[in-house]
Specification:
Blueprint: E1 11-17, H1 22-38, E2 43-47, H2 50-61, E3 71-73, E4 81-85, E5 95-98, E6 112-117, H3 121-136, E7 142-146
Parallel strand pairs: 1-6, 1-7, 2-4, 2-5, 3-4, 5-6
Length: 147
């Protein structure tokens, strides 16, 4: 018997990269999305800006020729990976990859929320704020430091 997703334990994972460039962060996120796809999970990726979402869309197309990652922008087509600018309109309810610096108000809709930070001061500061917000919600985030 399967339990509804609302009764499952929610988890929050922070990946903290040892780098400070947008390109390295984006490359890590693409690798992470590939892993999520290989695990046959659904994933919504929330970006702050339309331009970031569009750039990442292009980088997923170019990720690895032998590793196509089926994805869509704002659910224009059905795909396991959906890219969103600012707010997710229709939740997949499985994995939220929050690339946005603000706390995702609808994270409770997901089984897993993933945050990816690098060493830029703004991302670290905003990440600390989100960490506190998750703790306030009664969750104990897991942290993975990536060298």
């Amino acid at each position: 018997m399967t339990m509804p997703s609302s009764s499952l334990e929610k988890d929050v994972i922070f990946y903290v990269l040892g780098t400070d460039t947008a390109q390295q962060r984006e490359a890590f996120i693409a690798k992470l999305v590939n892993k999520i796809h290989q695990e046959k999970r659904l994933c919504d990726i929330r970006f702050e800006k339309e331009e970031e979402m569009t750039r990442f869309d292009l980088s997923l197309w170019q990720y690895k020729p032998e590793a196509f990652i089926p994805h869509s922008v704002k659910r224009t087509v059905e795909a396991p990976i959906q890219l969103w600018a600012d707010q997710v309109v229709t939740s997949c309810q499985d994995v939220l990859l929050n690339v946005h610096p603000d706390f995702p108000q609808n994270f409770q809709l997901y089984n897993r929320t993933i945050e990816v930070l690098d060493q830029t001061e703004h991302l670290i500061q905003m990440g600390r704020e989100r960490w506190k917000a998750y703790k306030k919600e009664g969750l104990e985030p897991t942290i993975h430091k990536i060298k």
